[in-house]
Amino acid sequence: MPAPKPQSKAGFVYVLSNESMPGLVKIGMTTRDPDVRLREINSATGVLPFVIEAVIASRNAKWTEREVHERLAARRVNKNREFFRIEIPEAKKTIFEVARQQRQRAYSRGHGRLAPAAAATLTMAMIPAVGLVHPYMVPGWLLLCLVAALTGRPRMIREFLGVTRKVAPAIATGILMSAGAILITRATGHDSLAEAASALSGMYRNLIG
Q1: Which residues are paired to 129 by β-bridges?
Q2: How many Å apart are CA 72 and CA 64, to the nearest integer?
Q3: pTM over 0.70
């Protein structure tokens, strides 16, 4: 007979990882903002900071946490601790399965370890676009990316840099194409990309004609 569903406030069930603890994740719950709980945990530890990997926004946080813990009971390091010997992708998979079963909302934060090649690709791809705004902004962009990679802040930049290696080239290509389109419109003095493309086509025909 399944255990009765505990009564609990709405809250969040989170998955945390830490570079100093490979192969381990911490899965807990909070009724406050997960970032507030993350700061508390990091202020109490003397190791590298934890980062949020995934979150469930639950209507009954204790119930959701219990279900996740029960599914991963065989991986639990100590029954009195919230640490589990499991790789991050598998932990995320469990989180999303429980959320789907309970009709809760789960999301990945993308704050795990960066793929250096993907982060570098996206950082460099943005340089032409940033330079179009103002050339002096390029050093600021590079510094912002470095800070985001090291601290996770600003969150939006960190999540942008944290995409997978498979996705990064496509995003980078799109950014470069957009910047190139803007450069074309500026160089040809036309208001739209279609007009610029038509003008360039005409110039090409004149050159080869």
Answers
A1: none
A2: 13
A3: no
Q: Are residue 104 and residue 120 in the same domain, yes or no? A: no
Q: Using an 8 Å Cβ cutoff, are 144 and 154 in contact?
A: yes
Domain match, 179 and 104 both: no
Residue 115 CA neighbour count, 13 Å, CB half? 14
The string of pLDDT tens digits covering residues 8-64 is 688 999 999 988 888 999 999 999 988 889 888 888 876 678 888 899 999 999 999
pLDDT digits (tens, 9 = 90+) for 162-184: 665 666 676 777 677 777 777 76
| Domain housing 23 | 11-108
State how many domains the chain has.
2
Structure tokens at 23: 């192969």
Report the candidate in 36, 2, 15, 166 with the shortest Cα–Cα distance to residue 97: 15
Largest CA distance in the chain: 84
Based on the domain organization, do 81 and 46 belong to the same domain?
yes
